[in-house]
Amino acid sequence: MSKVVLGFSGGVDSAVSAVLLQKQGFSVHGVYLDNTTEQAKWEAVASAERMGVELTVVDVHEELEEKVCRPFTDCYLHGETPNPCILCNPTMKFPMLLREADRVGAELVATGHYARAEGGALYKGKPSNDQSYMLCRLTKEQVSRLTLPLGGYEKKQVRALAEEFGLPAAYKKDSMEICFIPDKDYVGWISRRAPLPGPGDFVFHGEVIGQHEGIVHWTVGQRIPGLHDGRKLYVSRINAEKNTIELALWEELFKTQFTADDFNWLIDPPVGTPIPASVRVRHTKWEEPRCTVTAEGKERDIAWIICETPVRAPAPGQSAVLYQGDRLIGGGFIGHWAE
Fold first, then answer.
1. Which of 125, 227, 267, 320 lies at a CB distance of 3.0 to 4.6 Å from 130, suitable for a disulfide?
2. pLDDT at 184
3. pLDDT of residue 282
4. pLDDT grade for 174, boundaries at 50, 70 and 90
5. 264/283: higher pLDDT
């Protein structure tokens, strides 16, 4: 019987994934990445025991700090908006799963992500809960050893399967917060790790119109309170060096040309001629305009993206993720845009 190593939290997604893999004939070896509470760890261990899943618990606090928490903090202090899952998946979570797979003699690793891994490529999951965006920085090698049991399901179907399989996780609430900031107070969390930038100027069309409480409280696209001359204003740029936040009207937030830096290609980078694609600039189901893409830089690691229709407020630090049809072809961090 072939072994597969599964990222196992004890939640409904990983629990149903384990059963589906067992039904496919795999011997499932779970890995719990211990980075939150003793209660969460106990629940995962108890769930694995009930399901007959061998479970390895790995303390990841130190590696999480280095690979995710510190970059997350630095991004906010530089006026950017990071996505911790996109930082974590290729640098910590999947390398740990693959190390465990090598240790126990498993060729494949699995997670409960709602996306499809087929033939060494990644594809979108069902539109209602597609999570392919979060996997945009996996390497080709990581993808080649990945199977995603939930790729053909919607979340409501997975909960129904959990009930059918008699899994207690069927009634467990989804975790919506950042795993290492369970109270959702990311500003407070950052303040305990580093001195926060102080108040600075709100600037609209070159004019100082007010004071902000600190750049870490804001992200590009966010609306500021109140009205200015009867109009709503939104954050359009954060300048950490000057400690200023530039504001814009709604219609001024939309951009058609921008870069995605440190780009991770899951296909051969386009050389010379732009290629057609579509792009997401945030984890959303509704905004994915068609575009053309050119690979630039010595390492072809800068993607210059030109959209057919403008996208709203591409935020530095967030990821721009490219698709051709349903296939995910790569992702990078939004850098700058053309005015």
1. 125
2. 86
3. 86
4. confident
5. 264
- How, if at all, do strands 302-312 and 290-296 pair? antiparallel
One-letter amino acid at 54 equals E
CA–CA separation, 172 vs 337, rounded Å?
42
User: Exposed, middle or buried, 325 (CB in 10 Å: 0-12/13-18/19+)?
Assistant: exposed
What local confidence, expressed as pLDDT, does residue 302 receive?
93
* 168 — pLDDT class (breaks 50, 70, 90): confident
Task: Give the pairing of strands 200-204 and 207-212.
Answer: antiparallel
pTM (whole model) above 0.70: yes
CA atoms of 88 and 7, how far apart (whole Å): 13
How far apart, in whole angstroms, are the C-alpha atoms of residue 26 and residue 260? 38
Residue 179's pLDDT band (cuts 50, 70, 90): confident
Asked if 41 and 48 count as a contact pair (C-beta separation under 8 A), the reply is: no
Measured CA to CA in angstroms, residue 157 lies from 127, 181, 297 at distances of 13, 29, 44
Q: What is the mean pLDDT of the chain?
A: 93
Residues 107, 98: Cα–Cα separation, whole Å: 9
Query: Distances in Å between the alpha carbon of 317 and those of 66, 73, 77, 250, 257?
Result: 18, 12, 11, 21, 16
Q: Contact 247/236 with Cβ under 8 angstroms? A: yes
Q: Residue 169's closest CA among 8, 50, 329, 12?
A: 12
Within 13 Å, how many C-alpha atoms sit on residue 76's CB side? 22
What residue ranges in the chain does DSSP mark as E strands? 3-7, 27-34, 54-59, 108-110, 115-118, 121-124, 146-147, 200-204, 207-212, 234-239, 244-248, 254-265, 275-280, 290-296, 302-312, 319-324, 327-337
Structure tokens at 326: 């349903």
Per the structure block, which two tokens stand in for 303? 């993607």
Residue 177 has pLDDT above 70, yes or no: no
